[in-house]
Fold this protein.
Amino acid sequence: MNVLVVGGGGREHALVWKINKSRKVKNLYAAPGNPGIAKIATCVNILPTDINGLVRFAKEKNIDLTVVGPELPLSLGIVDEFNKNGLKIFGPTRAASRIESDKSFAREFLAQYDIPSPKFQIYDSAAQALKYLKTINTFPVVVKAAGLAGGKGVFIVNNKNEYERIVDEVLVQHKLGEAGKKIVVEEFLTGQECSVFVLTDGLRILYLPSAQDHKRLYDGNRGPNTGGMGAYSPYPMSKLVTDFIKEVIVQPTILCMHEKGFPFKGVLYAGLIITPSGPKVLEFNCRFGDPEFQAMVPLIENDIIELFLGVVDNNLQDLQVKIKNLWSICVVLVSAGYPFDYKIGEEIQIKGPLDTGTLLFHAGTKIEDGKLVTAGGRVLNVVYAADNLRVAKQKVYEEIKKIHFNGMFYRKDIGSSGMKKMKRKRKVR
């Protein structure tokens, strides 16, 4: 098979790494790829948003399957265009991807079908949003840009002044562009957040390893939101919670999308919060998480191409996901100043060989004058899997000490919340 992966970040490097292990794959391409991907696939200089260019390339190279990493090309209708041209592609249609690309649509959909989620209001004008301020009795509240904002359109607002400032920045100053044409104001929920991933052909469902992302910049979940500072997998859940998620959240969502005429085919990512009253949906995404996928990928035993083809060809009934009995941690190394202004072009040095069990996925890197340098906010993903979470955490941070670039920053507590959760469970028993 000839396979094309669309995207060039850490998630796409992890996809290429896993796809490259398939015996079914003959030629593997990535558009645009990155220096890490270039070691195992042929990178082509086509942007993920150049859908016509990607269609032409897929035809020229007789691509048998295209796998889409980021959400933006999905929201622009890449799957619809590939389908029109008789090309196999893994991912949801433009209509189905609205579950992520339009948070106002998603909230209204969830409310219509009584799928547990926060109370919310939707506004497209600052005047109306500020009127709502008079009804807010307690803070914090959550303000979200309705469109795609690269993981940076969510604000936890702690007082009236912050609320007024965020409303002004998003709806008046348009700092988030098209993503901020509408905002969703939600109640603030407390609990542990987790990410649940399923493969679906629109009706049948296969569950992948769960994960817990760490969005805030600093240890202890402090500081501004980012695209993700790290993740561990799986997230420890009781059978009671797992069954609730399956029966009350995931299955109804898939079936209702099918009934509404926009069946979801691909990977559905449920961003959940486990509240005292049960799990609720914070968001749905129409693609693999980044960095959650980097954390979970070492745990998937299957040939991932077989799973993707099962989705595309509606053959999931013949498949099951095989998950290794391991724990995995991904830590993201970022540039100084991220997620705001940051410097690029810093040389990346790796001092000594990495452990054979370490996976290093490139995100924001490039080759400049023959050297590997930083080229983005999130630069590298360091991943390690082990028999238990404590060992995985210890090893991944040992490996990070071998990597250096000026201004390199990372969280030191990825996986700690999972270790605490499991310790509490042992005490209860």
Q: What stands out?
A: The radius of gyration is 21 Å. The longest strand covers residues 266-275.
